[in-house]
Amino acid sequence: MLPMFFWAFVVGGLICVIGQLMFDVANLTPGHTMSILVVAGAVLDGFGLYEPLVDFAGAGATVPITSFGNSLAHGALMEAEQHGLVGVLTGMFEVTSSGISAAIVFGFIGALLFKPKG
User: Fold this and answer.
1) Cβ(38)–Cβ(8) below 8 Å
2) Where are the beta strands (DSSP E) in 1-115?
3) 4, 13, 88, 95 from 74: Cα distances, Å
4) Where are the domains positioned within the chain?
5) Residues 6+ apart with CB under 8 A from 67
6) Residue 118 pLDDT level (bands cut at 50, 70, 90)
7) Contact 60, 17 (CB under 8 A)
8) CA 1/CA 15 separation, integer angstroms
9) pLDDT tens digits, residue range 74-113?
10) How far apart are the first and last CA of the chain?
11) If you compute the radius of gyration of the chain from its CA atoms, what whole number of angstroms results?
């Protein structure tokens, strides 16, 4: 079990290091950095490389933002096989809808419970 935690830490850390280097060295904005990492996850999934990374690193590959791109591309490709072009559009939202919905609901509850500083 210890090697699993080690590789999750290493892979997740490397993804975070790449993002930090985009901030520090390339002087990219947070929006640009997040977009690039999401697209990178989608491209890796399109080539069939992200799922082996998830199998190897577990949470180290599923927690960073690259996993969101992986989910979008994976859902789109899966639904495109069954429903064609319409499946590309609906597949992205079907796979990621629960996570997005949870973020909206918990964000709303947090806004109700806590007073923002300002």
Assistant:
1) no
2) none
3) 24, 23, 10, 8
4) 2-113
5) 41, 50, 54, 61
6) low
7) no
8) 22
9) 888 888 888 888 877 777 777 777 777 778 888 889 889 9
10) 45
11) 17
